[in-house]
Design brief:
By secondary structure, the chain is of the alpha+beta class. Helices cover 39% and strands 23% of the residues.
Length: 327
Amino acid sequence: MADKVQRFFELLRLLPRYPRKASPQDLRSWLLQKGFQVTERTVQRDLQYLRQFFPLRCDDRNLPYGWGWMDQANIPLPTLDPPTALTFVLAQERLQRQLPPSVLSLLEPYRASAEAALNYNLRTWRDKVRVLSRGQPLQAPNIDADLLDTIYEALLQERQIRARYLPRNSHDARPYLIHPLGLVLRDQVGYLVCTLWEYDDPLQFALHRFQDAELLEQRRRIPEGFDLDAYIQSGAFDIVDGEPMQIELYLQPSMAFHLSETPLSDDQVIEMLDTQTYRLRATVANTLQLRWWLLGFGAQVEVREPATLRADMASRALALAALYQDA
């Protein structure tokens, strides 16, 4: 009996919220991975039994049939202790700056449970906690919720997608056969890392530029040796302008203090030259993002080495000054 109850709980946890659905075949496969030895028929009987007590629905309009929680259903969750509930509420408030509303809506049942656990304390904590961004706040681009569900489903089930996508600087969407490899969130934009057709070179597709997407039955192909972290660290999301380099910066005291707390690299060294000047040495990736970051500090940071970077920064500063020469 205990095994059956545990299986029921796991089955309820695996079910998605409408309009997403999970087939009995997929649910059985996931339960087998969890160590439950069940047949597809057992899963179907479990679902019919649980339907008597929980707001579940079976979508049998087209194949494959699938099960899920009803839309707006109050999904029963374990009681959260106040520290856990507070952590969840703060994490969601942070995510509101990172994810589109269609994604955040998936967290709504959990947010309600967390707020119920905090009860009165939630209001007092919200008066005491703020989440700020150092960059210019940007609104997340609009993404169709159903389309996003299809992409997430393809990632989770490791299946191919047939989609139409609007490339940057293009007015016409193009068809692609996509093998999803991973999802990267950067600022307010989500990127699907993937390969196309039979090619092995990973690419990045911005989620908000997808026009439509169809989940296919075929499994995705993974390039031999592909690792998402290694792909990111290779500079895939930054425009690399050469090999890593050792930089030398002259900093004002406030910048020196800031970078002593949040170093640029493991080998960073800061030393005082005089009361108003500090010298920083560090090995960093040679990217355009580094240049934009340095420009953002204006006269608080002077690039001393390497000479090529110093010349590049001087050229950018002169071009910027030329824009405002009549001010």
